[in-house]
Amino acid sequence: MAPTFSTSDSLYEFVVKEGNGVKGLVDSGLSEVPERYVQPEEKRINKLRTRKHNVPPIDLSKLKGPDHKKVVDEIVRAAETTGFFQVVNHGVPLELLESLKDSSHRFFNLSPKEKSLFCPGVSPSTKVKYATSFAPEKETTLEWRDSISLGYTTDQDALQYWPNQCKGAALDYLKSASKLVRDILEVLIESLEVKVEESIVDIHSGMKVVKMNYYPSCPNPDLTVGVGPHSDVGAITVLLQDDIGGLYVKLDEDNNNNNNNNQKEWLEIPPIPGALVINIGDTIEILSNGKYKSAEHAVRTSSKSRVSVALFNFPKPTLKIGPLEELVKKDGVARYRRVLFQDYMNNFFTNTHHGKESSLDFAKST
């Protein structure tokens, strides 16, 4: 029999404080979406206002060879417009991707008691965090998602502190995908045609976090969101989707056929077998002085449970991020100011998901 919650506080206690998560709600026999999860209409993704991203994936293996320039042009064009693209022949073994999805399911299928051992405050490492929604202590409406974040410091720490169910596959994914992160960042920075320090890629992507997301089956997906509208704060994100999908990108005003701001057009990023999704983050938009776009994106829930696994690549918190000086001279204007990345992250992680501008505005020149 499904539990009943007399108040919003009692639901919060069950889902957040006791570590049951959204999965605990669904496993208890839930047949309706609780009021605390019903999103306001402007935050929902209306499938009637979406269209599918029909651009073929980019073949990264052709970066070395006669088609190098063509592949570079495809990467740059995507970074300048949607901020999202998919890649194949990326160097991450396909069997590893399958193992990663399986290990994600293994972790989230643990009992609430076992998963709650990784909740903030009791987790064996501050770098390992099991959570639900995004910022449940501040959100009026919760997101339909559970997750575990695995912050990387050393292999030894990862093997010691990351959950046994997923640490091997997650660490292999981080190592393998980091090569394509470097390749893509080098392409983007070289295409800016300005002089930079050789260490620029490492400086802006040296901090890495693997995040496994679980979106339980939802009784009414039209009422909820898995993740609310936002852009990622780091350099670039590498995302593995399963075959169910649910990722949507909001088209930038320049690429939107619909000029009514209340009728925003969302672009569905459909799963492609063996492909990885690449997402340009705020750090690269700021570094490029707005030439490259970090895309606002969100996740729609489904009647089927699904997983996704992201590799986030951040600057170190002590780095000041800002537009490259040569670009500012060339453009004649600095569209963003220099900010300490720790301050930028604090602004993002202490607020709820309210679209791309709620984070980027923090760094915009006034």
UniProtKB/TrEMBL annotation:
GO terms for biological process: coumarin biosynthetic process. One of its GO terms (molecular function) is metal ion binding. Gene3D superfamilies: B-lactam Antibiotic, Isopenicillin N Synthase, Chain. The keyword Iron applies. Keywords: Dioxygenase, Iron, Metal-binding, Oxidoreductase. Pfam families: 2OG-FeII_Oxy, DIOX_N. Coiled coil: none annotated. It comes from the Eukaryota. Its cofactor is L-ascorbate. Belongs to the iron/ascorbate-dependent oxidoreductase family. This is Scopoletin 8-hydroxylase.
